[in-house]
Write a structure and sequence with these properties.
Blueprint (H helix, E strand, L loop, with lengths): L8 E9 L5 E4 L4 E2 L5 E7 L3 E9 L3 E6 L15 E2 L4 E5 L14 E7 L6 H4 L13 E3 L2 H11 L4 E7 L9 E7 L7 E7 L1 E2 L1
Parallel strand pairs: 3-14
Antiparallel strand pairs: 1-2, 1-4, 1-12, 4-8, 5-6, 5-7, 5-9, 6-10, 9-13, 11-12
Length: 196
């Protein structure tokens, strides 16, 4: 009898800031105003390694996770190791008046059981910038191409959950699971936020 293998998966959602400064989970496939302040939440179903990247039309790719800020403060040796069931929250768009909001935000979620090579090794020519909230601005198109190729052909199951207004559940999120039998599974998700 074969042991049951738990499929590698994650949950992601979008938090939108209201006029009182509170964040509420909203439909990830909704259409947002260009001035909305949004956060991305990611929760993984088991221990592993998570990288979250964002495409900024002005500076290229930005590493949203792992960073010291996303881990709650400065730490030695920032790494992508995450705990199963823990939720990680990163900024997806800036507050109105802080930076250029042109272009639809695009985020990449990369989750695996084994560590991905260190970004410094993958991107030896990448430029780090501390000017955007401690996030690293890097050029990672080559890395993205390799990650896409590695993930291609791997069956992903995706399910969007949107609780009915006034109903019992207010959950609004997307669940993604690698349904393949690969011994080194990878979950690679592209999140594009539509703006008007």
């Amino acid at each position: 009898e074969r042991p049951t293998v738990r499929r590698l998966g994650l949950r992601y959602g979008i938090l939108k800031r209201d006029s009182d400064g509170n964040y509420t989970e909203v439909d990830p496939s909704g259409i947002f105003d260009a001035g909305d302040t949004l956060r991305l939440t990611v929760e993984v179903n088991q221990p592993g390694f998570l990288t979250i990247l964002k495409r900024d039309p002005n500076v290229g790719w930005i590493v949203l996770f792992p960073t010291a800020a996303a881990r709650g403060g400065e730490s030695k040796g920032i790494e992508a190791r995450v705990a199963g069931g823990a939720r990680y929250v990163v900024p997806l768009t800036e507050a109105p008046g802080r930076g250029d909001q042109r272009g639809e935000p695009q985020a990449i979620l990369l989750f695996s059981r084994k560590p991905q090579p260190d970004l410094d090794q993958i991107l030896p020519s990448g430029k780090r910038s501390e000017t955007r909230g401690g996030m690293y601005a890097v050029s990672i198109d080559e890395f993205m191409g390799r990650a896409r190729n590695q993930a291609s052909g791997r069956p992903l199951l995706m399910e969007k959950v949107v609780g009915a207004p006034g109903g019992g559940s207010q959950e609004r999120a997307v669940y993604v699971v690698n349904a393949g039998s690969d011994p080194e599974p990878l979950v690679f998700v592209e999140v594009i936020v539509s703006q008007r």
